[in-house]
Amino acid sequence: MTHLLQHMALAAFFSGVLTVFLTPLVKRLAFRAGVVREPRERDEHRKPIPLWGGLSMFAAFLVTVLVMRLFTGDDFGVGQRGNHPILGILLGGTFVAIVGMLDDKYDLPPKLQALSLLIGGLIAALLGARIEGITNPFVPIAPSGKFGSENFLPLGVYSVPITMLWVFLVAKTFDFLDGLDGLAAGVCAISATTLGLMAAMMGETAVALMAAALVGACVGFLRHNYNPASIIMGTIGAQFLGFVLASLAVVGALKMPVTISVLIPLLVLGVPVFDGLFVIGRRLYLRKAPQQADRSHIHHRLRRRLTVKQTVWTIYTLTASLCVIALVLAWKFGR
């Protein structure tokens, strides 16, 4: 495990440095392409700011994963029985990123955004990054501590659509969370660190290294995105980060042979997921369109009483607290 942790640190460092140096290039590219966010009523910034910041994170993540695969000698475990979950995540994430770039440029209809996330989830699921089943909490584990087939509920034909819905949910709620400077990138870094450590405990090399690369990309981006931000990640960043986190949870935390395996990713991704579900539920209750923007998200509510930085750090702390609980549960029951 020490060897793997060293490679995770290397992946995070390389990805972070790459993001720091790529982001200024992306800023100039966004200005030249006219991909600039004009101030809106619900925004904190009061001057035009370039989008496409997520492009630097996407590029740094992809390059880091490929470099680590080629030069570290680590086994990236492409799966069994023809499954290639890591390839599925990379291809699905690339598709989501491309559509996100187009949305930042052309402001695509919400239905088309949603369809892109579902297609990205389909690509990942068909290549093996799917929820094949869940643990059965009503069947006790044998006294020996071994996890048998009776403790597992296979999803069968529902595996792919459930995976698609999970990916859509996490990616879209992460998009909702991207409302304050540094918020989505910081929350993603904390969540990805947690998923990476869990994967390291389970010996899942590929998941651990991909999570570390994502952490580095987010931290490197904060160099330019922390308040006051000079660039924002845009749809490409928020939905790509959410997609990768959801996919890593599928091939990592959700495969833990414990009865609480479903709970663990919900804790790790609890802030964006529960915030998103609350906001959508509230809009439906008020008979508003689910995609209609408002100021009811957790960061908007906290912002009424706190500064931007205080709000961001409050949500960082909440995310970290939930992730610590998830880590403790994973360490106690998942080994």
Task: Note the topology.
Layout: H1 2-33, E1 36-37, E2 49-50, H2 53-71, H3 85-106, H4 110-126, E3 133-135, E4 152-154, H5 159-177, H6 183-202, H7 205-225, H8 234-251, H9 263-268, H10 270-285, H11 298-303, H12 308-333
Antiparallel strand pairs: 1-2, 3-4
Question: If you had to describe this structure to a student in words, what would you say it looks like?
Answer:
This protein is mostly helical and 335 residues long. The chain has one domain. 66% of the residues lie in helices and 3% in strands. The chain is built from twelve helices and four strands, in the order αββαααββαααααααα. It has a two-stranded antiparallel ribbon with strand order 1-2. The protein starts with a helix and ends with a helix. The mean pLDDT is 87.
